[in-house]
Design brief:
Elements: H1 2-21, H2 29-41, E1 46-49, E2 54-59, E3 62-67, E4 72-73, H3 77-81, H4 86-94, H5 109-115, H6 210-215
Antiparallel strand pairs: 1-2, 2-3, 3-4
């Protein structure tokens, strides 16, 4: 299983690196799609420039301050994601610049290639492995545990019970079969060793005649 996972990761890193080297854009494809959607939604904003690379952006009844030089917006979306928000995109378009140049370097193609550059190396088969020094490693001795081995695994509380047709005893009040008391059973009853105690008689079970059973 570990060998299959290693081979899958080795092939995945190779395919990711080949895909990254074939891209001509400055940012990855998924981030480019997200940025184009933000740029389209920024048409609802109205930007007003100020001194020092700052802009006042209005959208509906809301108003935000964008600082292009510091890559900040008072909505804090640009600082958290590293992607220009709709307010920042509106200000960038007012300056006739590309919003992709204001992206965080984390989303650049250079970072994407650098991530998958140091991939897993291929390995030789078991026959060519070098022999390790020391005693061979063997499996630990089997130790038989006390008690009867369990056949069924422990089920989680969120799982269905083993037998859904069997009613649970949870919430049922325990009754003693010796003294008829409530809250204990005959094993913990104090009256079973008392010679003066007389066990209450069992109530007779009413059984119907054969004719009654036959009529049912």
């Amino acid at each position: 299983m570990l060998e299959e996972i290693r081979c899958a990761l080795m092939e995945r890193m190779h395919s990711k690196l080949m895909h990254a080297t074939s891209l001509t854009d400055s940012i990855t494809l998924r981030i480019r799609t997200k940025l184009e959607e933000i740029k389209y939604n920024s048409r609802l904003c109205t930007s007003k420039p100020a001194v020092g690379g700052k802009f006042q952006v209005n959208i509906g009844e809301d108003q935000f301050v964008v600082d292009i030089n510091a890559h900040t917006c008072t909505c804090r979306t640009w600082q958290i994601t590293g992607i220009p928000c709709i307010h920042a995109c509106s200000s960038i378009h007012l300056m006739n610049q590309d919003s992709a140049t204001f992206m965080d370097k984390y989303y650049s193609i250079e970072t994407y290639i650098e991530t998958y550059k140091n991939a897993l190396d291929p390995l030789n088969g078991r026959k060519i492995w070098p022999q390790a020094d020391g005693l061979p490693i063997k499996a630990p001795k089997f130790k038989k545990m006390s008690g009867r081995p369990k056949k069924n695994r422990k089920r989680d509380i969120t799982e269905d019970p083993k037998n859904p047709n069997k009613l649970s005893k949870q919430g049922i009040q325990m009754t003693c079969a010796v003294c008829g008391g409530v809250g204990h059973n005959k094993r913990s009853s104090n009256m079973k060793n008392d010679p003066s105690f007389k066990r209450p008689p069992k109530l007779p079970v009413k059984r119907g005649s054969r004719a009654e059973h036959g009529s049912r």
